[in-house]
Amino acid sequence: MKTGYRREHDENWKTFRLSPGLLSPVLLAFAGVCAAHAGGLKYWVEPCARPAEMGCKGGDPDLAQWAMEAWQAASDGKLHVERTAEKNQAIIKIYWVSRRAGLYGETRGGDVFVRPDPGEGLLREATVYLTCLHETGHALGLGHTAHFDDIMYNFQYGGDIAEYFARYARKLERREDIRKHPGMSQNDRKRLAAGL
User: Fold this and answer.
1) Beta strands 103-108; 111-114: pairing state
2) Which residues, including other chains, have CB under 8 Å from residue 189's CB and lie 6 or more apart?
3) Predicted confidence band of residue 93 (pLDDT cuts 50, 70, 90)
4) In contact, 11 and 22? CB cutoff 8 Å
5) CATH numbers and ranges of domains, the chain
6) How far apart are CA 123 and CA 140, in angstroms?
7) Which of 2, 22, 43, 180 could serve as 92's disulfide partner, Cβ 3.0–4.6 Å?
8) Rg for the chain (alpha carbons), in Å?
9) Mean pLDDT, to the nearest integer, of 34-39?
10) What is the pTM of this model?
11) Average pLDDT of the chain?
């Protein structure tokens, strides 16, 4: 399965949607792990070791962690996430990809690829965070929606993409406020609950 935010048109790139109620292989694997170990969903975040090449910043792994924690909080206790330093122990792996990739992000099974926004300030932080939130939503089994208020909204439906990120950034006075504003709609929460 390949899904993601797209920055520019590419006829070879396709978006796949999951049907409501259809669990992704990652969620099925998670269910098996939880049953076997009564533990949480382990995820790994790539350190920002090559900022010049990948466009990431030292604090970007925190944004990915906050996205995973937001899904956990939205699950009403049904989902427990645990960050691991061991990539081979993780069910979900979050990578930073080059600016040349042309995507905001992309998900393939449990592998999440995020293209850090090259900007500065809170708009940049909001864009990277929301991309992490959207793509990890795919890794948890959520497909796209046509609702502009949803984090799982698909940009192929149109709308003001710059405003999509800017409206969230306006809620923030400082970077740490991201943790107070999860960035997902009631519809996103309902869809998550239905899949767990």
Assistant:
1) antiparallel
2) 74
3) very high
4) no
5) 22-191 (3.40.390.10)
6) 25
7) 43
8) 16
9) 42
10) 0.82
11) 83
Single-letter residue type at 100: R
Q: How large is the average pLDDT for residues 99-126? A: 87
Tokens coding 165: 């990120």
pLDDT given at position 14: 31
82-90 long-range contacts, CB within 8 A, separation 24+? 82/39, 82/40, 82/41, 82/42, 82/43, 83/42, 83/43, 83/44, 83/45, 84/42, 84/43, 84/44, 85/44, 86/44, 87/44, 89/42, 89/44, 90/42, 90/43, 90/44
Phi, psi of 10 (to 5 degrees): -145, 110
Q: Residue 156: what pLDDT?
A: 87
* Residue owning tokens 């691991």: 84
How many CA atoms lie less than 13 Å away from 160 in the CB half-sphere?
Answer: 6
